[in-house]
Amino acid sequence: MDNLLRIRKGHEHARVTFVELFFDLVFVFAVTQLSHTLLAHYSALGAIETLLLLMAVWWVWIYTSWVTNWLDPERIPVRLMLFAIMLAGLILSSSLPKAFAELGLVFALAHVTIQIGRTLFTIWAARGNVAIVRNFQRILFWLCGSGILWIAGGFADGEMRLVFWIVALAIEYAGPSMGFWTPGMGCSTTADWDVEGGHLSERCGLFVIIALGESILVTGATFSNLAWSWPVVLGFLSAFVASLAMWWIYFNTGAERGTESITTSGDPGRLARLGYTYIHLFIVAGIIVTAVGDEFTLVHPDGHADLKMASAIVGGPLLYLIGTLLFRRAITGQLPKIQITALAALIAVFFAAGYLTPAMLSLATTLVLVVVALAEKGAAREMGGEIA
């Protein structure tokens, strides 16, 4: 029976297609919306709500990347499916700032429509491949269960909406780790997920680029609207150098090692689930929080950094390094000592924040990131794996 699956070409990994890159444009907007939402509601509750929204957006994107790992985006029906998700994703992204206000039901319906609609399409498109069809039938069972709670939360108000959505998200995130156990069908194993590792690692690397690009856009837009003074200029330069260091830490060695590990692994599904599906969320979250910290620094570079500013200026790089450390652990089985030391340094900087201006605090966190980037470069040279 004819299906819409990609044709595997030996050891050559499937390339990322132009339609997949076009699809990602919607998520550039989503990441921008998330950083603006966190900036506008920077509090403990606002952070929890923004984290929930980020996890929902990430789950939409990563599930779609898994689907295009199997389905061929060059086939017209698959392209049309991606375009439909783009439209629903644009609606979802537009509703993010008011998802916990009057647009809660819009957000919930958009999320559920994407998740269930894409799964149903995949079951049809993979017809004839029993393993993939059965896996997505299991996924459908889980997404229908979480979808009821998403929509119920859309109708609820205040704390009840948050509760409904936390439970819905918990169900969706628990699914892969539990093999999507389904009554009458049992659960799948990571060996059942015949993932094309090179493609998935490249897709996740591109999402990191999206997040870093959004961070640079926010910094540039904020800087252009301010009166230029030495503290503002220093804050701007610090933010830019931090973005370069974050890029270097991920792409100079980590991304390449990840690609090599997953393409040569005897169980690529396990690495894809742990290293790319779960752990990359920390990396993206770190970039978004860093962008918020850069905004705080540029707008208020002088004076003493309060707890609000310090939590963003230090918290973003901290989350990012936790993510890259866990990713390295997943793909190599080792914990890089330099990143553990850097985490300790960032914690020390946080406790010293009350004695520093926001600009000085930003420079301190940037210095930590630069040291990690330089150390990673040295490690790559010693291993003979430095990327030109």
Provide the fold topology.
Layout: H1 18-40, H2 44-70, H3 76-95, H4 104-125, H5 130-155, H6 158-177, H7 197-224, H8 230-264, H9 268-278, H10 280-299, H11 307-332, H12 337-351, H13 358-382
Keywords summarizing the entry:
single chain; 388 residues; mainly alpha; 77% helix
Low-confidence runs (pLDDT<50, min 5 residues)? 382-388
In what range is the share of β-strand residues? under 5%
Instruction: Give the proportion of residues in helices.
Output: over 70%
Q: What's the count of strands?
A: 0
Mean of pLDDT = 92
Termini separation: 45 Å
Broad shape = globular
Number of discrete helical segments: 13
For the report, how would you describe the main beta sheet? none
Order of helices and strands: HHHHHHHHHHHHH
Q: Helix/strand-derived class?
A: mainly alpha
Radius of gyration: 21 Å
Name the assembly state.
single chain
In short:
The chain is mostly helical and 388 residues long. The chain has helices spanning 18-40, 44-70, 76-95, 104-125, 130-155, 158-177, 197-224, 230-264, 268-278, 280-299, 307-332, 337-351, 358-382.
Describe this structure in words.
- The chain is mainly alpha-helical.
- The protein is 77% helix and 0% strand.
- It contains 13 helices and no strands.
- The chain has helices spanning 18-40, 44-70, 76-95, 104-125, 130-155, 158-177, 197-224, 230-264, 268-278, 280-299, 307-332, 337-351, 358-382.
- The longest helix has 35 residues, at 230-264.
- The model is unreliable at 382-388 (pLDDT under 50).
